[in-house]
Design a protein that fits this description.
heterodimer; A: D-Maltodextrin-Binding Protein, domain 2; 2 domains; eleven-stranded mixed sheet; 19 helices; 11 strands; 42% helix; B: mainly alpha; MetI-like fold; two-stranded antiparallel sheet; globular
């Protein structure tokens, strides 16, 4: 695995850091992206360039504005920071440019694994990796005398013991909020069960299968050990439950694990017991029930070549290897940048990469499937309909949307 | 007013209405009957930090050619309106044949997004609107009978629910009704059921949304009725009192008839507003239990792949829905107008 390689060689690369740097650009740069700490660091460092104006618009609603902001000519945003799910919308509409010439000219600091190539063209530069993995309370597991679970079946057994021994009433946490989160948890479990969302090489849906039914059954069993409000809990609410000491086992994003117990007012036993491990498998499979993600930046198509070059230079400054000397920056993410030495918060994501977790698919119609899953699975989770009916509804909802967008006839 | 004067007087308003109301409606109509070109897909090799995979992507050159030829997209007529995401005619017909009776048929339709959304939207509209009018009237009458010095303060506090941004107001309540929040714990205590959770129950979520809707909109009715109360002729009230009417009878036979045009006005505005209910559903994170027409539009537009045609079709259906809701009131106003002539 390339990540493992990075992990082993990164200590050597630190030596190259520490030289003086200057970043001069000759045209405007405008960045849009999500707003978690790692991206804020990249944005702030890109904005440190001299010679022209660099503006950043980092917001959780970036997906609603990045496409409209890049469709105009000239485009408002010269760069969008995206992930492997959200780059698809920009590629579908053809608003980002190939970066091969700019990589050749200014990209000597980049390692090959950072280059996101589509059909041979570099379309984005990745700077961090992310995955969902196990986060648990080691003190609670010691109390019941079990090892951290490696499979979801073990997690269920541990959850039962914790509840039966009266330690916690709802020991399992999960971002199961109806919509995007619920669909993502389905994706994780479905891939772990060996399912594939589409029939090979086509946009025909394939979730109404044995793997799909098993996935829903496992999600339902897990939800029995969750707070009854689980369908309203997104990642933030799930983290709050963990911080409050109400949850002992949960599947959580690596990008959030580092700061999970850093907030004020968290009980000492939660801070001390907080531990992370790799993602779990399910149903006897080898593939972890999780997905791998990268975050990276793109350069808009509808801008002048000068602006594109300035954007590339500024963004390169935002991810320069020297930044990896700063301990605080290193803790913010699992960086793909040369010179990164992993912190203790990164082991979950590294374990995910090493265990052969499947990357979240970059398919043009995957967003429609994600939306359909998020809208149609809530009825099953509430016990209002059967797993087969819920999955048939997902396929029907997806088909209607895919026909409208011209992916199916 | 002479026709010429009227024309020049109305022209700026008319132009603004054309620009900001008529044109957007035409644009939405057009977008709802056109949709994206059929995608030309190619197999490409994608490489990244996690290795290489062969995946499908959109062929940009072929797609660009199609777009240049037909910039509006492909004409699909009413097919978006009739698909499963909207009126779902095929599915409805199947369910009609498969169902054992009317009740069974109606419960089957709740599996289709549009019908699920319209059920909640109409329930919300027809419960919230009369309740908020009644509450607004009671508050207006109460405040009106207060001592002069207390009125200012009472008016300010009565208006607070409307001043608070809907999204913030619903978010604060959402936290309070959490099973560990102050209201949620109180309800558990009252029901003597420690596992009771408002957010996990569909019927309780609906009640919570309706109570919130009334709470949020009642100040609007209150302000209008309070202003109306200042114009009630005092000689009529005195005459009623002399005839032996008590306070309740005065309200019923003098004040309410006097305020009737205002009730019509508030009903008109609130029917329109409540039919487009959105913020409380987002604030309360209630998508699993309740969906509204406006929420369908938001979901279409906020997914990773935006569904503009679907959102436009739902918008047109919303406009039709509002028109049908307002028809009785509009017909009555028109008849009044003709009667006065």
């Amino acid at each position: 695995m390339k990540l493992k390689h990075l992990f082993l060689t990164s200590a050597v690369a630190v030596a190259s850091a520490g030289t003086a740097w200057s970043c001069e650009i000759g045209a405007r740069v405008s960045i849009v992206g999500n707003e978690f700490p790692a991206i804020q660091t990249v944005g702030a460092e890109a904005a440190a360039c001299n010679g022209a104006e660099v503006s950043t618009n980092l917001t959780a609603d970036h997906q609603k504005i990045n496409l409209p902001g890049m469709q105009g000519n000239p485009a408002e945003y010269t760069s969008a920071i995206v992930a492997n799910s959200s780059i698809v919308a920009l590629m579908n509409e053809d608003v980002i440019r190939p970066l091969d010439d700019l990589v050749a000219k200014h990209g000597s600091d980049l390692s090959k694994s950072q280059l996101i190539t589509v059909g041979g063209n570099v379309m984005a530069v990745a700077f961090m990796a992310n995955a969902q993995h196990l986060v648990y309370r080691s003190d609670v597991l010691e109390q019941i005398g079990v090892e951290p679970p490696k499979t979801y079946e073990e997690l269920l057994a541990a959850a039962k013991m914790i509840r039966d021994q009266g330690i916690l009433e709802n020991p399992v946490g999960g971002a199961y909020a109806a919509g995007w989160n619920l669909a993502q948890e389905f994706n994780n479990m479905f891939l772990g069960m060996g399912g594939s969302h589409f029939e090979a090489g086509s946009a025909e849906p394939n979730v109404n299968s044995e793997a799909g039914v098993n996935t829903l059954m496992m999600m339902k069993e897990l939800s029995e050990y969750m707070n009854p409000d689980f369908l309203t809990h997104d990642s933030n609410a799930t983290n709050a439950e963990f911080r409050a000491g109400n949850v002992a086992l949960m599947n959580m994003w690596g990008s959030r694990a580092a700061t999970l117990v850093a907030a004020e007012g968290i009980p000492q036993e939660v801070v001390d017991g907080f531990a992370i491990a790799g993602p779990m498998t399910v149903g006897g499979g080898d593939t972890p029930a999780s997905t791998l993600w990268w975050d990276g930046w793109t350069v808009a198509k509808n801008i002048s070549d000068e602006e594109a070059e300035a954007t590339f230079v500024a963004m390169m400054n935002g991810i320069r290897p020297e930044l990896m000397e700063n301990e605080d920056v290193r803790r913010q993410a699992v960086w793909l940048i040369d010179g990164y030495t992993p912190t203790s918060a990164a082991i979950g994501v590294f374990a995910a990469a090493q265990a052969g977790t499947i990357p979240y698919p970059m398919l043009p119609y995957n967003g429609l499937m994600h939306t359909a899953l998020g809208a149609e699975l809530a009825d099953f989770m509430q016990g209002k309909e059967s797993a087969e009916q819920a999955l048939a509804d997902v396929e029907a909802a997806y088909r209607a949307a895919a026909k409208e967008k011209g992916f199916l006839n | 007013m002479r026709h010429r004067t009227f024309f020049w007087f109305f022209l700026p308003t008319g132009l603004a209405m054309l620009l900001f109301i008529a044109f957007p409606i035409v644009s939405v109509l057009v977008q709802s009957v056109f949709t994206t070109h059929e995608a030309v897909l190619v197999e490409v090799e994608n490489c990244g930090p996690f290795g290489c995979t062969v995946e499908t992507a959109v062929d940009h050159d072929a797609t660009a050619a199609k777009r240049a030829a037909e910039p509006l997209g492909r004409f699909v007529g009413l097919s978006v309106y009739l698909d499963r995401g909207h009126l779902a005619v095929t599915e409805i017909a199947e369910q009609w044949h498969a169902s054992s009776g009317l009740g069974d048929f109606i419960s089957r339709t709740q599996n289709l997004p549009f019908y699920r959304a319209i059920t909640f939207t109409l329930t919300f509209t027809f419960l919230v609107t009369p309740l908020l009018i009644a509450l607004g009237l009671v508050v207006a009458l109460s405040v009106n009978s207060l001592h002069r010095r207390l009125k200012g303060l009472a008016i300010f506090f009565s208006l607070l629910p409307m001043i608070v941004t809907p999204l913030i107001g619903s978010l604060i309540l959402f936290w309070m009704v959490d099973s560990r929040g102050i209201l949620g714990s109180f309800i558990q205590y009252m029901a003597d059921d420690p596992s009771l959770s408002l957010k996990a129950s569909t019927s309780l979520t609906w009640i919570m949304l309706i109570v919130y809707g009334v709470w949020h909109s009642a100040p609007f009715a209150f302000v209008v009725f309070y202003a109306g109360l200042q114009t009630v002729p005092s000689d009529q009230i005195e005459a009623a009192r002399i005839d032996g009417a008590n306070r309740l009878l005065v309200v019923r036979h003098v004040i309410v008839p006097h305020l009737m045009p205002l009730v019509t006005f508030v009903a008109l505005i609130q029917l329109m507003d409540n039919f487009r209910v959105l913020e409380p559903l987002v604030g309360f994170n209630a998508q699993a239990h309740a969906q509204s027409i406006s929420l369908l539009i938001l979901n279409d537009l906020s997914g990773e792949t935006q569904q503009l045609s679907s959102a436009s079709a739902t918008s047109v259906l919303t406009i039709l829905g509002v028109a049908i809701l307002l028809l009785p009131v509009l017909v009555r106003t028109w008849q009044d107008f003709k009667g006065k002539k």
